[in-house]
């Protein structure tokens, strides 16, 4: 099974850049989208998704043109869960989950704290809540794939300039420690299991010609619960895919 996570930074903008053609060529089984910034009624291309064999489940934010997640899948889920039992994060469309027979896939869009202290605190609140929510979920469903834009670089290897960004939201010590503790609670970073080398990123600023110079951040992940680790076949960052300021990450499970 091929699972892709992709922050498209606006699904309509990505579609104008040939996103459907890319999807058809890659042909993943499950696609976890973040920052869709749209409701399906304003995306006529959903008909093409259905023609390609995808069921599509959308969880847009209440605020138009903001945030939101979605899951596309060629395998019919037995259950779809919208939200994570938290009013604010549900209003922002932060988490959607698809349950299959043997495992569940979550598409999550973690808040950014780059606009200031208020949103940074919202981010910390989300991290605390996400840990508790997944702790409870794992008691029911041990096999989890937690895919999405975490808006955190875990370690220095995951950012192009760790020294200058040491006090920047997304690379703060508290955020990085949360990632460490979260993975210690029973998850593995699927990409890092087979890719220990530096200079692999999933997001680049639009400024300073950052992407051609590969001055990026790795903030998009597939975190896989420990019982599923033996099923990982490969993980790839598809950095040449350019529909967004992020790029997709592909996980293949046996």
Provide structural commentary.
With 254 residues, the protein is of the alpha+beta class. 26% of the residues lie in helices and 26% in strands. The chain is built from 7 helices and 14 strands. A 6-stranded mixed beta sheet has the order 3-4-2-1-14-13. The protein has a 6-stranded mixed beta sheet with strand order 5-6-7-8-12-9. Strands 10-11 form a two-stranded antiparallel sheet. The longest helix has 24 residues, at 117-140. The N and C termini lie close together (6 Å). The relative contact order is 0.15.
Quick structural summary:
With 254 residues, this protein is α+β, with helices and mostly antiparallel strands. 26% of the residues lie in helices and 26% in strands.
Number of continuous helical runs: 7
**What radius of gyration results from the CA coordinates?**
17 Å
* Gap between N and C termini: 6 Å
Low-confidence sequence ranges: none
User: What pattern of helices and strands is seen along the backbone?
Assistant: EHHEHEEEHEEHEHEHEEEEE
The portion of residues forming beta strands comes to 25-35%
For the secondary structure, the number of strands is: 14
Structural class: alpha+beta
Largest sheet: 6 strands, mixed
> Residue share in helices?
25-40%
**Largest sheet, spatial ordering of strands:** 3-4-2-1-14-13
- Average pLDDT score: 97
The global form is globular
EC number: 3.1.11.2
Keywords: Hydrolase, Magnesium, Manganese, Metal-binding
Organism: Candidatus Sphingobacterium stercoripullorum
Protein name: Exodeoxyribonuclease III
């Amino acid at each position: 099974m091929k699972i892709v996570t992709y922050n498209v930074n606006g699904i309509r903008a990505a579609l104008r850049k040939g996103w459907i053609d890319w999807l058809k060529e890659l042909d993943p089984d499950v696609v976890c989208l973040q920052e869709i910034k749209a409701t399906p009624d304003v995306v006529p291309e959903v008909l093409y998704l259905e023609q390609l064999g995808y069921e599509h489940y959308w969880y847009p934010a209440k605020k138009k043109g903001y945030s939101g997640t979605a899951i596309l899948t060629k395998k019919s889920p037995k259950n779809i869960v919208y939200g994570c039992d938290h009013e604010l994060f549900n209003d922002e469309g932060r988490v959607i989950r698809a349950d299959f027979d043997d495992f569940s896939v979550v598409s999550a869009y973690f808040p950014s704290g780059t606009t200031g202290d208020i949103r940074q605190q919202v981010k910390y609140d989300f991290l605390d809540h996400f840990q508790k929510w997944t702790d409870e979920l794992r008691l029911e469903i041990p096999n989890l794939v937690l895919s999405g834009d975490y808006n955190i670089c875990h370690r220095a290897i995951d950012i192009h300039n760790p020294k200058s960004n040491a006090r920047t939201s997304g690379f703060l010590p508290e955020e990085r420690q949360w990632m460490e503790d979260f993975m210690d609670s029973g998850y593995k970073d699927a990409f890092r299991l087979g890719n220990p080398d530096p200079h692999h990123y999933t997001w680049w600023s639009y400024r300073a010609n950052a992407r051609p110079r590969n001055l990026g951040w790795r903030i998009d992940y597939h975190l896989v619960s420990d019982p599923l680790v033996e099923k990982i076949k490969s993980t790839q960052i598809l950095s040449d895919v350019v529909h967004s300021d992020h790029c997709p990450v592909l996980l293949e499970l046996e």
